[in-house]
Write a structure and sequence with these properties.
By secondary structure, the protein is an alpha/beta fold. The chain is built from nine helices and five strands; from the N terminus they run βαββααββαααααα. It folds into two domains: 114 residues, Rossmann fold (3-Layer(aba) Sandwich), CATH 3.40.50.2300; 72 residues, Arc Repressor Mutant, subunit A (Orthogonal Bundle). The protein has a five-stranded parallel beta sheet with strand order 2-1-3-4-5. The longest helix has 15 residues. The N and C termini lie far apart (44 Å).
Length: 208
């Protein structure tokens, strides 16, 4: 069994990556959020730790505790366009990095490289996305921002619908409209790009 830990600060992001990892036969994954206590059912041995560079800078002590618990595990940094390229506050000794905006196959390839003890090359910007941080931020409605905030927190569409007093179909429609506006094709991409462009900050502000 090849054991992978995913350390991040967005539940949806961590859960989707865990599903991707466990889709490979013989691989197991555990997800941890930097703002939550450590789970009690984590294995004593971990082969690889995928660390969200932004989460590591946000919670260096929590990240260091993970590194200290599994000192022999390889580390791959998950980076974002416009975000930190390395967890500068923690000595993680990564073997490489992969962009969160990469295709799922690129992440699987990076994990295979780590498993086979090869260096993981630094990520390169996706074609056409290199200047994305300089583009005007997409405008979303207050309702869309609230749905976005709850999606990033890992809530199901039915739970979001109930909390807002709308139908699950309306939530799905808003999600599809947001994906179209941000030119993405999955909820993971939606949350990743929205976070990169500061839309999640706007969503949190609108909730206050």
């Amino acid at each position: 069994m090849y054991r992978v830990l995913i350390l991040g600060n967005m539940r949806l992001f961590v859960e989707v990556l865990a599903l991707l990892v466990t889709s490979v036969e013989g691989w197991s994954a555990w997800g941890e959020l930097v703002d939550r206590p450590e789970s009690v059912d984590l294995p004593e041995v971990m082969d690889l730790v995928l660390v969200d560079a932004q989460a590591a800078d946000q919670a260096p002590e929590r990240t260091k505790a993970v590194r200290d618990k599994w000192p022999d595990a390889d580390v791959i940094l998950l980076t974002r366009l416009g975000g930190p390229g390395s967890a500068s506050k923690v000595d993680l000794r990564p073997i490489g990095a992969v962009s969160c905006e990469s295709a799922p196959s690129a992440l699987i390839h990076a994990i295979l490289q780590a498993r086979d003890h090869h260096h993981v090359p630094a990520p390169t910007p996706a074609p056409g996305r290199g200047d994305a941080v300089h583009q005007p931020r997409a405008e979303l409605t207050s309702r869309q921002l609230e749905i976005l905030r709850q999606l990033a927190a890992g809530r199901r569409k039915t739970e979001i619908a109930e909390s807002l007093g709308i139908s699950p179909q309306t939530v799905r429609t808003h999600a599809h409209n947001m994906m179209a506006r941000l030119d993405v094709h999955s909820l993971l991409e939606l949350v990743t790009v929205a976070r990169r462009d500061g839309l999640l900050d706007a969503a949190l502000e609108s909730a206050v």
